[in-house]
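Recap from last week: sequence in, structure out.
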Amino acid sequence: MRLRRMRLRATGRWLQVSEVTQTVHGDRPARKPKAPKIPRTDMPCQPAAQRAANFEEVTLGYDSDMAMLEASRCLLCKKPKCVLGCPVGIDIPAVVRMIAAGDPAGAIAKLKETTSFPAVCGRVCPQEEQCEQLCVLGVKQEPVAIGRLERYAADWEFAHGTTGEDAATTPQIAPRKGKHVGVVGSGPAGLTCAGELAKMGYDVTLYEALHKPGGVLVYGIPEFRLPKAIVARECEYVESLGVKFKMDHVIGRTLTVDQMLADGHDAIFLANGAGLPSFMNIPGENLNGVYSANEFLTRSNLMKAYRFPEYDTPIAVGKRVAVIGGGNVAMDAARTALRLGAEVHLIYRRTLDEMPARTEEIHHAEEEGIVFDLLANPTQIIGDEDGWVKEIEVIDMELGEPDASGRRRPVPLEGSERRIPVDVVIVSVGTNANPLLTKSTSGLDLTKWGNIVADEHTLATSKERVFAGGDIVTGAATVILAMGAGKTGARSIDRYLQGEPLLTAEEEEAVKGPSHQTAVAS
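Predicted structure tokens:
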């Protein structure tokens, strides 16, 4: 064995690696040396003790050297399976190649061919369960950090602008078609659908119930994970495409869907989300100091309660907070309460292995000092003589056989009840569809849970000219899945308004592009 020096393609750095040689027998060539294994590039973060006391972004992003080094790990697969895991069909290999070659302008232009919000998706989408899960490199090593590279390209665009040579990121707008579409909800599904339709040449009006656009991106995700300035920038981008925003419009109250159709909308896309909180129906949930995670995060995020008294929307947090649940929303609520000065207990009835929150978020929460009370399930909330929370009672659990979700079912251990002193309880056990819009709309079929029934491939509803997508159809899901629904809805509305038949399932797959088809074929 001898040592040789190798230059990394992307960075120009030199590494000393071992080169295996062998004696040549006859005409047999020497063994080709193996390429060095490059470890996955860590993303810089604020130190845990520092970030636990502020609302600034936790992860700091790659610089150009880090991004190029990470991109150089890509195997340049002939049949890239990573594309299969992307709900909006991004040409991931092309983006990664451009970053590896030092061309972030080309990478962001390629991203924006298929996604309107790379800065958002690069931060909050569960890439480890989607594109990165299918990365071929991940079979033997850690997968390429696709999400971090997407964020790098988006942040590069913001830092450098889109003028001159970079103007390729500004999309082509088709000539006006003279038809008008209304989109309800300015979350990821609504913003995506509105933007896509505007690029196709439609006049689009987007209706939002709250006073700021962004939906769950603004009120549901904390500043330290997704800065509001980034969401505002993405909303401004959609507005620059010609979409008109109408804030403070509660569809079902300010206007109904039927009125919108009568007032000149040729089609409507419903993307109003599933924002009605669920509770556990245990004694004490009506005490003062009990929040749904939706209310707690909305007060903090949208009303800037985390900057009280500069903004006069206080949150009564107290000294000890219990957060019930194990998803990303529970994690967001717990980490927000921690930053507001509380000791936080996260109560979850299974173990860390079954916890549905992103691994990165769990890791950050542990580093910051969240106390995990696992294999515990609340049975009641106890109040004081003034009606305020003072304790939460839990019962210990053990895991039994797997349930319908594939996770082992938690089973209570009789006689193991115990109490935890707390001032505030935040319940994060899921959401349902708000019935305000659906109850005021005639001819709209609903599921038994109150979600809108929409065709799986076209998103057409039972009501003529009305399409629906995102959480109002699927229940709570990811940002990128909602974006995928927005793109599908825009395609279907375009075909419908042009008098063309809606796409079949096979045709819907075909429009996702050559990279997606190649991945499917493999």
